Amino acid sequence: MKSCLIVDDSKVIRMVAKKILQELSFETLEAADGRAALDACQQAMPDAVLLDWNMPVMNGIEFLRELRKLPGGGAPVVVFCTTENDIEHIQEAIEAGANEYIMKPFDSEILQTKFVQVGLLS
Amino acid sequence: MKPEDFDYLSKMLRDRSGLVLTKDKAYLLESRLMPVARKRGYKGLEDLVTQLRNRDETLANDVTEAMTTNESFFFRDVKPFDQFRQIVLPNLLKARATRKNFRIWCAAASSGQEPYTLAMILKEEAARLNGWRHDILGTDLSKEILSKAQRGIYSQFEVQRGLPIQMLVKYFKKADDMWEIDPAVRSMVQYKPWNLLQDLKPLGSFDVVFCRNVLIYFDQPTKTKVLNSIADLLADDGVLYLGGAETVLGISDRFKPIPGQRGVYAVQKPGYSGPSLGAAAG
Ligand SMILES: C[S@@+](CC[C@H](N)C(=O)[O-])C[C@H]1O[C@@H](n2cnc3c(N)ncnc32)[C@H](O)[C@@H]1O
């Protein structure tokens, strides 16, 4: 079973994402900010990270840059999932090493097709 | 709805678009035709059917278009487009090396996601296509959906269903809340309204045909007829792509599945025994 770390400061979004991902047979973990997510990754690298941008303590892009510096941190497939929906943010995310990018609002269809594209699902 | 009205509508739709409407789908008539009826100031579908019986051609067209299902995504099902890029396109480049041209047809183009997916793939491969002429023709029964295709403007929801994010950044521009495709990609596709039940010959001949997620709506004899007419238009080594829930098996012997490649079929031409464009090298 593949694992996905859900990083979002909104409990509601984490719940929605968790429900969708579990239906897609992912084992899910949660973190409410980038710092907590980084700690979780240092414990055990997940296969995938679903990542919000704006969060307290450490935001999504800072987390991603830190993650990619960690030993083994290049492995997780990182999918941004944020309300930021302009080309500049998307480009910044790609440059920081994001594999895909979801603009909120999203639904299970979008999440699923994005996960197929990055090879997390067949 | 009165049974005779249902029967009238379902026969009309079958004749005009091939759509098979079973009784369990009757609710679709309500949801899709009430807006058409209201636009004309009718109280309900009864008035609409009365007017259709008076041979109102414009209304019959509107009703036929309103009953089509236009759902489409970029890179739908992913694999067929990987297959096109990795196998069919390189084969085309070899097989047409002297002529340096090829034609692709999207036979149910809907709002344009499928032909634009192919256009973006050709853009990605532009370095190898230097000096080549390639046409992508997109046809559909519905004029309204084709005008959306022609505009090439999509909602945030639409660009997220299947389009890899790098492709979005590369080939789209944000305009307010919508995403507009690069005019250079848009101009690679020609659109033309065309009904698959019509004579297809005037469209010319093709090397590759995408006819995805439209045969599912037809009855078996109609599927056979359409598949056989497509076979007539294909080059000897041409290939056909069908949707995930569609097949030629038991419907047309003018196509053969290509082993190991789901949804891709090699046309069978009398007297031709060379390789298909869909055949993997080696
Ligand atoms: C579900 S869409 C498929 C779009 C695209 N090929 C794909 O796979 O995503 C089906 C399209 O077939 C068109 N269609 C239905 N009957 C048709 C007919 N008889 N001739 C041409 N197009 C037809 C509809 O208007 C609709 O846009």
TrEMBL record, chain A:
Report the record's Gene Ontology biological process terms: phosphorelay signal transduction system
Q: Kindly list the organism's lineage.
A: Bacteria, Pseudomonadati, Pseudomonadota, Alphaproteobacteria, Rhodospirillales
Q: Where is the Response regulatory domain?
A: 3-119
Tagged with keyword Phosphoprotein: yes
Protein name as annotated: Two-component system, chemotaxis family, response regulator CheY
Residue positions, PTM 4-aspartylphosphate: 52
Q: Which Pfam families would you find in this protein's record? A: Response_reg (PF00072)
Against PANTHER family, the record matches this protein to: TWO-COMPONENT RESPONSE REGULATOR, TWO-COMPONENT RESPONSE REGULATOR ARR22
Naturally occurring in which organism (per UniProt): Roseospirillum parvum
Q: Kindly state which keywords UniProt assigns to this record, in alphabetical order.
A: Phosphoprotein
Phosphoprotein listed as a keyword = yes
From TrEMBL, chain B:
Question: Superkingdom, according to UniProt?
Answer: Bacteria
* UniProt entry tagged with the keyword Transferase: yes
The CheR-type methyltransferase domain extends over 1-256
UniProt keyword annotations, A-Z: Methyltransferase, S-adenosyl-L-methionine, Transferase
Keyword Transferase assigned: yes
EC numbers for this chain: 2.1.1.80
Q: Which reaction does it catalyse?
A: L-glutamyl-[protein] + S-adenosyl-L-methionine = [protein]-L-glutamate 5-O-methyl ester + S-adenosyl-L-homocysteine
Show which residues constitute the signal peptide: none
- What class does this enzyme belong to in the EC scheme? transferase
The terms under GO molecular function for this entry are: protein-glutamate O-methyltransferase activity
* PROSITE patterns the UniProt entry points to: CHER
Query: A GO biological process this protein is involved in?
Result: methylation
The name under which this protein is listed is protein-glutamate O-methyltransferase
Classification from the root reads:
Bacteria, Pseudomonadati, Pseudomonadota, Alphaproteobacteria, Rhodospirillales
